[in-house]
Structures are given as structure tokens and as C-alpha cells.
Amino acid sequence: MRKLLITAMVLGLTLEVAFASTNGYLLNGYNAKSFGRGGTIVAIPDNSSVILTNPAGLAFLQNRSFGLGIGILIPKVQFMNAVNPNTTADQKYYPMPFSGYVDPREGSSWAWGFGLNVVGGMGAEYNLNHALLDTQKYYSNFGYITMGPSFAYRINDKLAIGAGLQLYYGMLDFKMPFSIDPVANLQGHPVNNPGMTFGQMFAAPTNQGGFGYSEVTAYADMKNLTGFGFGANIGVFYKANDQWAFGLAYTSPTTIHLEGKATMDMTAQFNEAFGMAVQGYMAQNPTATLEDAQMAVGQMFNDMGIDLQQGVAASYGENKAAFGVPQKLAGGVSFKPTSKWTIGLDVEWINWSAAFDKMPIKLKKGANPNINLMINDATADGSFNYDFPLKWKDAYNIKFGAEYQVAERTNLRAGFIHGKNPVPDNTIFSIFPAIVENHITLGFGRGLSDKLNLDIAYGYTFNKKQKAGSTNLIGQEYANSRNQLREQLLMTSLTYAF
């Protein structure tokens, strides 16, 4: 019941995210006010997103307030490979809600807040050609929110420290051709040949009785995976004087443990192998008819323990995936040359290499005895463990922004973000091209009354192209492929001060 209620809450917030002015899949801003000035917030504590970025800033907020808002992302994703001309993914509009309550507790050294935010995600949807599977849907959608309290203690008029706890809730859907190394992953043995694995048989050259496959491909459908993770952050804020301030913050790594169901369909790959075996039999037996060859090959597979009546498509009662969220270290400085100007600079280090080296997938309770036998005849229960390779590299973000008060209740903002692309050439693929690097942002803030403020921000991410290498760890269909991504993001928020 608890899981159902949380899922309903997330669906009510329409959690569906794709890239969204990001580094990797992490957002560059969680509030329209700070996003308008390039996402700078570590040393400019002026809205509730300090809960996620630098909780020490809670102690320097001016008012107790509640804020909520939403961002709308409009990405454009494109892909091209040997069997697909330059193809644009289906156009999507992704809503990203956020909210936060902060209480600097007037007269006290303590402050606290509570936030609920979409923090990151990725996704794309195509209909693409595949050399083996013909036209298939390629689809991914991953998004997650964080919720939790943060606290700050003001040591003196210049210095504060803070910490926060976060509950992560994630959702993942995934549909695409799924290619694996047969030798490494098909460890089961034919009944009539216990000295050779199915993987060795699929990989062996045709002149040695094999099929010559360097990879075997199924169509995978993993849907409605949901799960939780836990994390924390700490921060320090130092206001040197009326002009200069500094911040330093650390966010811990975590893993979101997702669970759901999956199906794997190897029919196209098996049919091709069956056809190759039939052709081989007829070449060795020139007088055999096609029907004779099909019967002989069918008996050959039957002797191996493969029941052709069962097919080679399987559903799995359990599917677990571990999705890594990286640790981050951020430093910021702000400068107010006059009372009307605020200039900020944030620098972030993101440890993608530890969090996104691989995504472990564990399938259990496979319903098809043929696939169970090919994967692992020792257990024959359908258990299949696979480390989906990602190999992302550590990255950095440099955020620069400025804000100018043009009137008593009106502010204009602008910013620029440069982030290093973490995705290597040998694992980039069509539905996870989180490769963008350069962003510009614009923002506008208006006090609608003494207590109510409206902030609007717009971000544009410049088109980024990346060509895959000549080999690809996800599948050879991506070798020498080309990916492109650009995006626009409109964000707005309302804040009410008590």
C-alpha cells in the first residue's frame, strides 16, 4: 500500500524527464530564480533550492517561505547509423515539478527546510531500423525525485554549516534490442554435448559447426521499474562582507535499487541461426529437400535440449537494476559590486566514473526453459545477471551568472553553463545520449506583492554531436553511429513569504 501511494504521488507530479539542461542526467538548476542566472546558488542563498545545493545557506535566507514551480523541457534528439538515415526522436514535452519550504527561524541560530524536487532523468523514443529485428521501438524513460529535510546552524554573523537527508525515488522504462557476448553470457550446456556451452556454439566459426556470432541479440522490454535510495549532503557558507560570499558543498553518492518485470525475445536471432543451420545441412547433403533439412536441424536442436515448441521468448517474474547517482563536490563565490548587482560562479565535480561505470541487471524467475537452459543449466531457473556497460567519465560543471535589480520589485538575470560531456564514444547509444555541454540561460523576477514573487527562466542548450567509435560495448549496431542533442527549457516558480 505504501509503495502504491508513493507511486501515485510521483505520477501525480508527472515525473517524466529527459536530459533537461543537464550534466549527464543531473539537472543544472532546481528553481527558476537561480536557473535564470546560470544555476548559481552555492554562494547565493536566496531560494529553497539550497536544500539540494548547499544546506548551510538556509541560515542566511531572509524569510520563511513556501515555493513551488514547474519546468517544461523541449528536447530534440537525433540518431544515425548504418541502417538508419538521420532520424529525429518523437517530440516530447517533459514536465518537471519542484517545491520547497524553508524556515530561517527568526531570532534563532537554527534554520530548516523541506524540499521535493525532480533532480534528474533521461529518455528518448524512436522507431529505428535494426539489421536483424527490422523496425523496432527504441525507448527509455528514467526519472527520479528527492524529498527530505535539511538543517543549518549559524555559528556567527558570517559563518553557517548545514546538512540534509534525502530519500530518492526513481522510475525506469526501457525497450530496445539487447545485445550480449554469447561466450560470456550463454553458459548453459547442450544436453548432448556437455563439453561445449551454447555461447561457444553460437560464437564458433561456421566451418567448425558454429554460427560465427560475436554477439547475440534479443528484444528487451523492461517496464515499471521503481525503487528507492538514500543520500545526504553537507555544506558551509561564509559571508565575508556585504560584497563577497563563499560556499562549499558535498553530496553523497547513492544507488537507487529498482525492481519490476521484464521480457526478452530471442526469436529473430534464433530463426536466423536455424536458417543458417538448414543451409549448412543442405550444402552437406545436396540431395536433401528443404523439409528434410528443417526436420534434421529441428532434431539437432531437440537433442541439445531445446524444445522448439516452447520458442525463445521469456518473461521474468523479477527484474532488479541498480542505478547509480554520483557524488558531487561544489564550490561557489558571489560578488555584489553594488546593491543592484549580484554575480555568481559555481564549479562542480561529478564522480560519474564510480556511479555510472555499469548498471547491474538481475533477472530471475524466467518462464522459458529453452532460454533458462542456454543461460545457465546449473540453475535452470532463469537467473541472468548482466552488467550493462556505461563507462561514463568524471565531469565538471562551470556555472556563471549575474542578476540586476532594474526596479524595486523587478530583476533581470542571465547565465552560462559549461559542463564536460561524461559519455565515452564506446558506450554512447541512441536512447541515452546525455552529451550536451554548453547552455545559456535568461531569467526574470517580479514581486507581485510584498509577499508573493514570480520567477521565470529560459534555458537553451546548444546542439551537441558525438560520433561513436568503431566498436561499441552496448552493441555493434551503434558502431560509427552519430548522436545529436539540443534542448530548450522553460521554468517558472512562485514563492510566498510568510
Can you walk through the features of this model?
- The chain is elongated.
- It has one domain: Beta Barrel (Porin).
- The protein has 498 residues and is mainly β.
- Strand 6 (110-130) and strand 7 (134-154) form a beta hairpin.
- It has helices at residues 2-12, 32-35, 50-53, 182-185, 198-203, 267-284, 290-304, 352-355, 369-375; strands at 22-23, 26-27, 65-81, 84-88, 94-103, 110-130, 134-154, 159-180, 216-239, 244-251, 254-265, 313-325, 328-335, 341-350, 358-366, 384-389, 395-407, 410-419, 438-447, 452-467, 482-497.
Number of helices: 9
Shape: elongated
Number of strands: 21
Percent helix among the residues? Answer: 10-25%
Q: In CATH's first tier, which class applies?
A: Mainly Beta
Strand-residue proportion: over 45%
Give the structural class. mainly beta
What's the multimeric state? single chain
Number of domains: 1
Query: What is the correct CATH architecture?
Result: Beta Barrel
Write down the secondary-structure element order.
HEEHHEEEEEEHHEEEHHEEEHEHEEEEEE
Mind describing the biggest β-sheet?
14 strands, antiparallel, barrel
Provide the residue-averaged pLDDT: 92
Give a short synopsis of this structure:
This protein is mostly beta strands. Helices cover 15% and strands 51% of the residues. The longest helix has 18 residues, at 267-284.
Key phrases:
two-stranded antiparallel sheet, 51% strand, 498 residues, 14-stranded antiparallel barrel, Porin, mainly beta, single chain
